[in-house]
Specification:
- The protein is α/β, with parallel strands linked by helices.
- It is built from 13 helices and nine strands.
- Helix 8 crosses helix 11, helix 8 packs across helix 12 and helix 9 packs antiparallel against helix 10.
- The chain is elongated.
């Protein structure tokens, strides 16, 4: 098997190396002249064996992917096959497939999970496309997926769009799992009088408990490298797939409170002095006479004259919020 790989960054470059290690020949193209093996996409197409040339695209979703697919449509021929392995929206897959089909070029979308560890451990793969195209690509999928039963690291999820749809839901679940571990970390850290070593507690959960997972292993690794996580900002980005998951849930009337909360928590992380929370504090001061913190992070500012002072961090039973 000999395929082309477009995009030799953190994911694409590692995937190419894993494929080569498994005996799959790879010719790579990257927009960065220092990374590329051929100068243009036309040269990439010319370097691949006919018939049935295969090109796997691993570039950022959106305009970059659209631009690559548009150019590939010009340099590939009827019978060739394009694999889109980025994080495109599943609705875009249908458009991409129809555009390439006009030239007789097949299209498969693949959701890829595994991150920077995939080269060593293998990648979880979720593919969408026609059965004959999936079968043709199986040597590539088998080279990329983790060792073990195929069904535990690869799935032909359905027609075009199904691969990226499955990966979208996968990433939504990932949001919720990470948020749960993060909240548990903060709760343990808050009681340093009882829990002097949070990392040790997380480490003890790695065997025998129902919360053990690879994400937990990575959490332990992060705390070992930076015990207080002091070198990391609390700002958390989102790739967009969490948002798409929630939009789909709304359209399908499927409740996803955990995934929604995890996404909104990421939004909160980008507001060190949240206008919304300042408004909540102001309202509590107005109706309940609760003290508020000064905007510079200093001591609490007193309550209005005549108001009942706050008795503690938690309201007394029966008291107003």
């Amino acid at each position: 098997m000999h395929i082309g790989m477009v995009g030799l960054g953190r994911m694409g470059g590692n995937m190419a190396e894993r494929l080569r290690a498994a005996g799959v020949e790879v010719t790579g193209y990257d927009a960065n002249p220092q990374n590329t093996e051929v100068a243009t996409l036309a040269e990439l197409a010319a370097a691949l064996p006919r018939p049935r040339r295969v090109i796997w695209v691993m570039v950022p979703a959106g305009p970059p992917t659209a631009a690559v697919l548009e150019e590939l449509a010009e340099v590939l021929d009827e019978g060739d096959l394009v694999v889109e392995g980025g994080n495109s929206h599943f609705e875009e897959d249908r458009v991409n497939a129809e555009t390439l089909a006009e030239r007789g070029i097949s299209y498969v979308d693949v959701g890829v999970s595994g991150g920077i560890w995939g080269r060593e451990n293998g990648y979880g793969l979720m593919a969408g496309g026609a059965a004959e195209d999936i079968e043709h690509l199986m040597p590539v999928f088998d080279a990329l997926r983790p060792e073990g039963p195929r069904e535990e690291g690869f799935v032909h999820a359905g027609p075009v769009g199904a691969g990226h749809y499955a990966k979208m839901v996968h990433n939504g679940i990932e949001y919720g799992l990470m948020q749960a571990y993060a909240e548990g970390y903060q709760l343990l850290e808050a009681r340093d009088d009882l829990i002097p070593d949070v990392g040790a507690v997380f480490g003890a959960w790695r065997r025998g408990t129902v919360v053990r997972s690879w994400l937990l292993d990575l959490m332990v690794k992060a705390v070992e490298e930076d015990p207080g996580l002091d070198d990391i900002s609390g700002w958390v980005d989102d790739s967009g797939e969490g948002r798409w998951t929630i939009i789909e849930a709304i359209d399908a009337a499927v409740p996803v409170p955990v995934i929604s909360s995890a996404l909104f928590a990421r939004f909160s992380s980008r507001q060190p002095n949240s206008p919304a929370m300042r408004a909540v504090a102001a309202l509590r001061k107005q109706f309940g006479g609760h003290a508020v913190h000064a905007s510079d992070g200093g001591a609490k500012v007193g309550a209005p004259p005549g108001a009942t002072a706050e008795r503690g961090s938690v309201a007394a039973p029966g008291a107003s919020e």
